Amino acid sequence: MSTAGDHTVSQAGNDGISSLTWSPTANFLVSTNWDSGVRCWEVQEQNRQIISQPKAQVNHENNSPVLCSTFSADGSTVFTGGADNAVRMWTLGQTPPNNLPQKIGVHTSPVKSVAFISSTNLVVSGGWDKFLKFWDARQPNPVGQIELPDKCHDLNVVNSLLVVACNGRHVISYDVSKEPREHSKKESPLKFQSRCIAAFPDMTGFAVGSIEGRVGVHYLQKVPGKESFAFKCHRQDTHAYSVNSICFHPHFGTFATVGSDGVVNFWDKDNKQRLKGFPAINRTISCAAFNNGQGNMFAYSSSYDWSKGSSFYSPNAPNAANQNEIFIHYTPEDEIKPKGKKKK
User: For position 318, what pLDDT does the model report?
Assistant: First the structure.
């Protein structure tokens, strides 16, 4: 059940949706699922109406859950990572042998997050084996690796800035314009485990979300008039819910959060205000992403995130709260553009 008027994508899969990623060059949307599937849709918007068409699907090996995805800079290739401990590559428009994407890298534990580094044409992967690894798709061995203080929960790349959120509340940033170089190592400004992280589009800092309904906005560089801060979100009465995804708009520097409370929020960090709060849906929201071109389409998934344990997982129940669906919300500028500071 989506927010009223949002488009529902067909054939969204049979198990938890772990990531949503848009092509940087066209309106192709890719999802990864715990059912081992990597799915692609072509999406079109006209006069605020959205239509989507399933285009293709590949699968990871041995029905292994797929946990993350990213696109190459030219939009031709999708890279994924998952519980088969592999980083895989799928060239859109091609059907790989046995419908299995080519393996370009391995970890010794599941791969939790991947990103593409445009400046060097490398894929970076973060694993539960406490390693960052850097891959050239043409070589079987990593071209570099960095040992992390603990297992990777999430990572994000914007141009030459790589930010990594690890277990133990470690947050590390790297300059990846050339050979990766550690820029800073900090303790998360939040008191509880990190769940997601996203770099600012202007690379001056990052936003990190925790399992306890809180977001930390942290500057890595001094910006006149700007200070790091944290704020509460995704809370109802005395209950705090996990912030499952943070995604920045491609043009305005504003961002969205989604959470286990089934709520989507749009935020303006510069003016410290919420721009829009969506009505709660009756399911957890696992991930989300803005399209990269106009930023006028916002994809989000309703999918059980296991925040209440296995006893709440009932896949065969009618209208189950963990039913897996993907929605696309048409996002006009007035919903996501900064409104300026409120007058006191």
Answer: 52
